[in-house]
Amino acid sequence: MILRIACVQLNAKPDLAANLNSAEHWIREAAQAGATLIATPENTSGMYERRADSIAAALEEDGHPALARFGALARETGAFLLIGSLSIKVSPDRLANRSFLIAPSGDVAARYDKIHMFDADPLDGKSYRESATFDAGDRAVVADAPFGRIGLSICYDVRFPALYAALGRAGAAIIAVPAAFTVPTGRAHWHVLLRARAIESGAFIVAPAQTGLHDGGRATFGHSLIVSPWGEVLADGGEAEGVTIADCDLERVAAARRMIRSLHHSRPFAPALADGQAFP
């Protein structure tokens, strides 16, 4: 079947209401263009420079206004909405970076907490310590939809191929990678990593991204991508806010996995040095 998929590219502000208005605008545009799976980036609810501001702005999942609004939008449009992530308060000073798949009924079909925390020092003059604010998730998630299974991941997860192999083995035909990639790492690695994860998993990769300058001068790379199971870039959102759309033939998933069976050829091995000693 042919599935029209859309990535919404945002420039999130430290303002929940403004971000929801922007996301809703672009989701409506994607739905009017015929997309039935529409994905937003990581940090859809907002991007903040200071940890204290992130914690102060976060809300508990129960009663979160973003979920109510996106649920109503899913019912109105009849589309599946993949909300890349919201900052969800799980204790007074700890958050979860949580992705939500919302069904056309308006119900949450799946939720996923980002497993791998972005604790890094890329060459943009900033230091990132996601683990100082967010609790890491501990389980991979796939969700069933009428058109096939969807695997969930978020941003920095893309550097850990074992997660994508697991999602592929679990039958995910589409894997979401909503992100807020830094500009230096984006220029160097974004396209390469997403194409590699598509090839390794034999799945379509749907990667909606944040773009432009944010609170405190942080810059994100943009270039929302939709990649085929064969590693072809089907759509690239460039650097502007907006919607990126591709028609995806889901039969290509089975075809790619028939041609390259690496998902099922993985074998256990003993790590050892040349002299037979185990790796340290």
Beta-strand share of residues? 25-35%
Number of strands: 16
Q: Could you give the distance between the termini?
A: 48 Å
What's the CATH C level? Alpha Beta
SSE topology string? EHEHHEEEEEEEHEHEEEEEEH
Mean residue pLDDT: 96
CATH superfamily placement: Carbon-nitrogen hydrolase
Largest sheet properties:
6 strands, mixed
Structural class: alpha/beta
Radius of gyration equals 18 Å
User: What is the CATH T-level topology?
Assistant: Nitrilase/N-carbamoyl-D-aminoacid amidohydrolase
| Shape, per Cα inertia axes | globular
Q: With helices defined by DSSP (H or I, 4 residues minimum), what is the helix count?
A: 6
Proportion of helical residues: 25-40%
The poorly predicted ranges are none
Number of domains: 1
Order of the strands making up the biggest sheet = 5-4-3-2-1-16
CATH architecture: 4-Layer Sandwich
Oligomeric state of shown chains: single chain
Summary of the model, kept short:
The protein is of the alpha/beta class and 280 residues long. The chain has 6 helices and 16 strands.
Structure overview:
With 280 residues, the chain is α/β, with parallel strands linked by helices. The chain has one domain: Carbon-nitrogen hydrolase (Nitrilase/N-carbamoyl-D-aminoacid amidohydrolase, 4-Layer Sandwich). 26% of the residues lie in helices and 29% in strands. It contains six helices and 16 strands. The strands form four sheets. The chain has a six-stranded mixed sheet with strand order 5-4-3-2-1-16. Strands 8-9-10-11-14-15 form a six-stranded mixed sheet, covered by helices on one side. It has a two-stranded antiparallel ribbon with strand order 6-7. α1 links the parallel β1 and β2. α1 runs parallel beside α3 and α4 packs parallel to α5. It is globular and about 60 Å long. The termini are far apart. The mean pLDDT is 96.
